Amino acid sequence: MVALTLGTAAVLTLSACGGSSSDDPSTDGGSDAKVGKVGVILPDTASSTRWEQQDRPELTAAFQAAGVESDIQNAQGDKNKFQSIADGMINEGVSVLLITDLDAGSGTAVIKKATAAGIPVIDYDRLTLGGGAKYYVSFDNVAVGTAIGEGLVKCLKDDGVTSGGVIELDGSPTDNNATLFKEGYDKAIKDAGYTVAAEQAVADWDNTVAATNFTQLDTKTKGEYVGVAAANDGLGGAVISRLKANGTAGKIPVTGQDASIEGLQRLLQGTQCVSVFKAVKKEAAAAAELAIALAKGDTAAADAVATGTVQDTELNTPVKSVLLTPEPIFQDNVQDVIDGGGTTADKICTTEELKKLCTEHNVG
Ligand code: BGC
């Protein structure tokens, strides 16, 4: 880790001037760095497989590689649990806190408490609007939405469908990312000359609720739609189950996001048209690098990592950010996800049918 080596001098000087974080000798991160334990709170296990299948292992690996102890907990979609995990970590005196909020209210309360205790907070993946975290690590989330929308347009055009209405199944209204994703795909869809036939935001990204929501949209539109922009693979999966029952799976293109194993399998099977790969390995590595710089009180090193900016539209302030670039994934570039460290072929090519499809599409 280059940053760790470069930061060594800064630790030695800054920890002597009472940096908020490096005064716990019990958690010495390694021979050359005194970085206390980093606390991470992930949001849930049900809205996307990414949090436990990708973020937890990648964050663990990134902190381990830097010789820093981490405590990664999951709030299981429960705002009270989110608060109590945070309270525990703050009381324990973690050096930095990384949070993926469940909504702006729960995130803001935690950021305020941690800040008051002198613990820097990084918004991880989701920006807590009005929260006041100093740093944010994520992807360019409007670009994620654009990849969803342009992917859908490509699939429609490939099928010779040049006009018609699209259903939008959006993410949670309490997740700022969902707003940004929608901004991206809504524009791409409309710019390409399609209309929005119906739309619904799915509370808490709940996949079961998504199935109910989509059934209602399907009924409401009387099946008169040419494609479905679903904001992640979990929601896309709920849509595709319904299309299977309707006999239109594979005929009506459906989108997703996260390059989840299930999503990639559906791409190969032809029931999902596009997913979006966000290399969590890079997101976790950037978050770890930033966290370590902040734990050392080395703002210059942190700023050198977080060179982007997003606007907190509640506070009307810019937030220093790391904003990574997403990649659309179709049937023929599933291998990119494997090459990018997102998953492995053996997890995707699990059945005889999938093994054959993997061979056909050069996966593995
Ligand atoms: C993340 C997505 C995820 C969704 C549901 C969003 O904030 O950016 O990757 O699918 O939350 O967990």
UniProtKB/TrEMBL annotation:
Q: Which organism is it from?
A: Kineosporia succinea
Note the InterPro entries from the entry: Bact_Solute-Bind_Prot2, Peripla_BP_I, SBP_2_dom
What keywords are annotated for this sequence in UniProt?
Signal
Identify this protein by name: D-xylose transport system substrate-binding protein
Where does this one sit in the cell? Cell envelope
Kindly list the organism's lineage: Bacteria, Bacillati, Actinomycetota, Actinomycetes, Kineosporiales
Which positions fall inside the Periplasmic binding protein domain? 41-298
Q: Which domain of life is it from?
A: Bacteria
Q: Which Pfam families match?
A: Peripla_BP_4
